[in-house]
Amino acid sequence: MSAENGLLALRANGHGDITATGLRWKYQRSVPQLPTTLLYRNVLYMINDAGVLTTLDPATGTVHKQARLRGVADHYFSSPVAADGKLFFVSLLG
User: Fold this and answer.
1) Measuring CA to CA, which residue among 85, 49, 83 is closest to residue 69?
2) Cα–Cα distance between 5 and 92 in angstroms, integer?
3) Helix (H, G, I), strand (E, B) or coil at 64
4) pTM summary value
5) pLDDT tens track for 6-41
6) Do residues 53 and 74 lie in contact, with contact meaning Cβ atoms separated by under 8 Å?
7) Taking a C-beta distance cutoff of 8 angstroms, is the pair 77, 35 a contact?
8) Which H helix or E strand runs over 22?
9) CA-to-CA distance for 9 and 5, rounded, in angstroms?
């Protein structure tokens, strides 16, 4: 068996089998296994389990920036949250 891991953006107005027409974009590098993505101020944020943060354009899937969080080498299993113009990422060690 093989599996393909990725983040997919699908059109919301599809009916029936949308396999050929529903996919807007697909991203497959440094995708998290557990934390969910966060859409905040028209930027899509995702952090993978190893602490690599990726920011994407939600309309096109184009990567704005990708880098490992500095000074916090740890595992990330919680989903990011945002408030008051700030992003919060909680690692396994807190």
Assistant:
1) 49
2) 23
3) strand
4) 0.82
5) 888 888 887 888 877 888 888 888 788 778 889 999
6) no
7) yes
8) none
9) 13
